[in-house]
Amino acid sequence: MNSYRFRFVFVATSLLFLFSVVSAQNAAKAQTSSNLAIIQEFQANFQEAQEKIIALAREIPAKDYSWRPEEGVRSISEAFVHAATANYFFMKLLGVTVTEKYPKHAEKVITSKEAIIPLLKKAFNFANQQMGKMTEKQLNEKVNFFGRKLTRRAVLLAMVSHTHEHLGQLIAYTRSVGAVPPWSKKK
Fold it and tell me: Closest Cα to residue 139, out of 153, 129, 158?
């Protein structure tokens, strides 16, 4: 009898342990899937904005890249360069090693359409790739963001918001010089 009870308790305990391990693994997978979903949503939103910014860069005539709404406000070329180089800046804040070199005052130095479009593509691709490498643990870690401690997730959200902010600015600039965003043209 004792042998039977011992085997029963041993089997029941083993099954309970196995169930606990499998449940923990499934919970970890669900959390990772959730994290991947968050990153995928950030990337999809970011990609939409970046594609539109690049489309505007192509649409605006090169002669208008020096246009600015008034003195002291970024020109079209400066807004594009700012939108591009900010991606490297945000990645540095997130602790990513950035090896890309660009001039110290890039907004004042990189002014031609021919130089800006490749810069936009490269900077957006870099940020998107780095974003896709982040883990749940990394997203939850806090970093210094202009004197505040924020999670990397919050900084990514700020980066996506920043990109959309400049998309709006560049849509207004596009229309101000008489060009039309490609997605708004009548077919």
Answer: 153
Whole-angstrom distance, CA of residue 64 vs CA of residue 178: 10
User: What is d(CA 172, CA 181) in angstroms, rounded to the nearest whole number?
Assistant: 10
Contact 107, 82 (CB under 8 A): yes
Mean pLDDT across 72-98:
96
Q: What global pTM score does this model have?
A: 0.80
**Is residue 103 very low, low, confident or very high in pLDDT (cuts 50, 70, 90)?**
confident
E-strand stretches of 95-176: 142-145, 148-151
- The three-class DSSP label of residue 94 is coil
Query: Would the pLDDT of 136 be above 90?
Result: no
In a 3-state reduction of DSSP, which class is residue 14?
A: helix
**Per-residue confidence band for 35, with pLDDT thresholds at 50, 70 and 90:** low
Does domain 36-184 correspond to CATH entry 2.60.120.620? no
Question: Taking the domains of the chain in order of start, what are their residue ranges?
Answer: 36-184
Residues contacting 160, CB < 8 A, separation 6+: 42, 45, 46, 49
CA of residue 111 relative to chain centroid, distance = 24
Take residue 170 and report the two structure tokens written for it: 């560049």
